[in-house]
Amino acid sequence: MTANSEKLHRMKELVGILREASKAYYTQDTEIMSNFEYDKLYDELTELERETGMVLTGSPTVNVGYEAVDELPKEAHESPMLSLGKTKDREELRDWLGDKEGVLSWKLDGLTIVLTYQDGELLKAVTRGNGAVGEVITNNAKVFKNIPLRIRYQGELILRGEAVITYQDFEEINSQIDDVDAKYKNPRNLCSGSVRQLNNQITAERNVRFYAFALVKADGADFENSREKQFEFLQEQGFDVVQYLKVNAENIIDAVAEYESRVPTYEVPSDGLVLMYDDIAYGRSLGRTAKFPRDSIAFKWADEIRETTLKEIEWSASRTGLINPVAIFEPVELEGTTVSRASVHNISILKGLKLGIGDRITVYKANMIIPQIAENLTCSDNLEIPDTCPVCGGRTELRAVNEVQSLYCTNPDCDAKKIKSFTLFVSRDAMNIDGLSEATLEKFIGKGFLHQYQDVFHLDRHKPEIVEMEGFGERSYKKLIDGIEKAREVELPNLIYSLGIANIGLANAKVICRYFQYDIDAMRHVTAEELSEIDGIGEVIAKAFVDYFSDAKKNEMFDNLLKEVHIVREEIDEIEQTLEGKTFVVTGSLELFGSRNELKELIEKKGGKVAGSVSAKTVCLINNDAASNSSKNKKAKELNVPILTEEQFMAAYLGMELSNE
C-alpha cells in the first residue's frame, strides 16, 4: 500500500468515525467521544485533506446542502457511450483476448454515470441516458455515499462508473414499506429512481454508491499504456473502482470461475463481467463498430435453461387495480429449485413472446434468481387479453406508460382491491381482528356484507347467513364478533395504518401521530411540505398521506369509521424512551419473548426501531445463535455490528439483568 493509499484509507476511517459522533451528539443527545477527541480527529482529517488534495463525500469539513430542482437538464456527452459486445462462451472470451493481457471486472447492474472534475473539484455528473444525451444529476451525485468531492489531480478528469444500491440497502428500504404493491421490484429500479430525484435529500437517504469502471480523460497523467494503472490512479484519487483481476489466456477461465463462485454472496447487483485489453493503445487501434467498441467485451452468465409447456396464464389483480399476467408451466428444475411460475410483467412483454396455451417455452432464472421466460418455441400467439377483470368482472383497459402497456381494472369497487384492502385493515398491526382470513373476507365481500371498513363492525346483521357458511357455526361466529368488539378500542397509529395509505407503515404512522400529538384534525389538514420536514418522513410518504386525506370520499369513509371505534391514547413516558434513535435487527428463534413481534413492540415502545436487515446504522443484531452462518450474522460481522442474545440485549439496553435461577 502506497503512502497516499494509507492516507486515503485513514481519511475514510475518520469520516465514518466523525459522522457517527456528530449523529450521536446532534440527533440522539448522546456523546460517544469528548469534544477534545472530536477536535483532534477533525484536525487530523483536515490535515490529510490538505496533504492529499482530496475531500471525501460525507466529510464534516464540507457541507453539501440539500437542493430541489424543477427538472433535470439534459446534456450531450462529449463522446458517445456505446454498449458492449456480449458473449456467454468462456472459450470465446479467451479467444477474444488472444495473446494479450486483460483486465476482468464485474459488470454492475445499476445506472451508468459520467463524472467530470475540473481543478480538483467535482464539476458535473451526467447519466448515460440514451448514450448520446444524458440528464445532469450533479446535486444528487454530491450526496452519493462514496464520491470524492475534491481530488488531488488538478487537470480535467472525466470518468465513467456505475451508480448502485446494494442488496442490503435495497432490503432495508423495502422492509420499511408495508404496502406490498409499493415495494421496489429490484435494486436497479430503486437506484435509477434515486439517482434521478429532483430533491437530493431523497437521494442521500437511499445510500447510492458509485464504482468507477473507465477513465475517459486525464490529460498529462502517465498510465504507462495500462488500464490497470488507470484503475490504480483512480483509487489514489479517492474513487472506489469495480473489483478487477489482471488476466491472460492461461488464467482467464479460472478467473471467470472465481467470479462465478462469488455471485451468490456479492453485495452489489451484477449481471456479468467486463473484459478489457490492458494495452490502451492496442485497444484504441481496433476502433469500434457502429454499436460497440472493440477494446472491451461483456461476458454474461450462461443461464441454466429448461424447456417446458405453458399450461395457463393467471391474471393476478392487486389492490391498485393493476392486473399482472403470470405464466404457469409444467414444473422444471432450475438452479437447484423447482419452478412452475414466472411473471410476464406486462402486456407488452406478453405480446412480444406471442404466447399461447400449450406452447413449448424455455425458462431460466435472471441473474440466477428470478424465474423468466426466455423464448417461445411455438409462438401460437392465441392468448386473449381479458376485457373484464378476473375478480370482479368489471371492464379492463390497457394503459401505456413510456410505451409499455399494462392491464388495469377500472372498477373502483373491484373485489380484488377490496379483498387486499380489507386483509390489511384486519391485520395484526392494524385493527387486529381474529377470524377474518383473506379467504373469509373474500366470501363476505362476495356476498355483499362488506363495502366500506365500517361494515366490519356490523357483520352481526348477517348472523343467519354467516353461521350457515362452511367453516362457521355459532362458536366461530361468537369468536369473530368478540374479536370485532375488542377491535373497537384502537390506538390511532394502528387505525391510520389500517387505511392502507401508500408507503405508510405502522412505524411511519406512529411518527406522524406523535408529531401531531394525536390531533386527528391537524393530521388531516397538514401540507406535504410540513409533513416532509418530520424526521423519517420523506417527500414520497408525505405526498401519499396528504393525497389520501385530500380525497372527499376517503375522508367520508374515515369519518364513518371513526364513529365505530374509540381511540385509545398511547401513553408515552418520555423518561422511558431510552432507545430513541437506535435501530435493531431481530433474527432466529426467541426464548424470552413469545414472538419477534413482542420484542419489536417493546423496542418501539422504548423509542427504538426494528429494521429487516443489518446495516451500518444497526446498533446490534439480536440473535441467540451468534455462531450461525445466517446472512444477517455474516453481515453483522462484516460491519462489526455486535451480535447479542436476548439476555445480553436486555442487560445492555434495558438495564434488566435476568436471573438464571
What does this structure look like?
This protein is of the alpha+beta class and 661 residues long. It folds into 6 domains: 3-52, Helix Hairpins, CATH 1.10.287; 79-299, DNA ligase/mRNA capping enzyme (D-amino Acid Aminotransferase, Chain A, domain 1, 2-Layer Sandwich); 306-408, OB fold (Dihydrolipoamide Acetyltransferase, E2P); 415-487, 5' to 3' exonuclease, C-terminal subdomain (DNA polymerase, domain 1, Orthogonal Bundle), CATH 1.10.150; 491-568, DNA polymerase, domain 1 (Orthogonal Bundle); 577-654, BRCT domain (Rossmann fold, 3-Layer(aba) Sandwich), CATH 3.40.50. It contains 24 helices and 24 strands. Strands 12, 13, 14, 15, 16, 17 and 18 form a 7-stranded antiparallel sheet that branches. Strand 4 and strand 5 (121-127) form a beta hairpin. The two termini are 54 Å apart.
SSE inventory with pairings:
Blueprint: H1 3-27, H2 35-52, E1 74-76, E2 85-87, H3 90-97, E3 102-108, E4 111-118, E5 121-127, E6 133-135, H4 138-141, E7 157-164, H5 167-175, H6 187-195, H7 200-205, E8 209-218, H8 227-236, E9 244-247, H9 252-262, E10 270-277, H10 280-285, E11 296-299, E12 306-317, E13 322-334, E14 337-343, H11 347-353, E15 360-366, E16 370-376, E17 396-401, E18 404-409, H12 415-425, H13 438-446, H14 463-467, H15 474-487, E19 489-491, H16 492-498, H17 506-515, H18 520-524, H19 528-532, H20 539-548, H21 552-562, E20 566-568, E21 583-586, H22 596-605, E22 609-611, E23 618-622, H23 631-638, E24 643-644, H24 646-654
Parallel strand pairs: 2-11, 19-20, 21-22, 21-23, 23-24
Antiparallel strand pairs: 1-6, 3-9, 3-10, 4-5, 4-7, 7-8, 10-11, 12-13, 12-15, 13-14, 13-18, 15-16, 17-18
Helix pairs in contact: 1-2, 12-13, 16-17
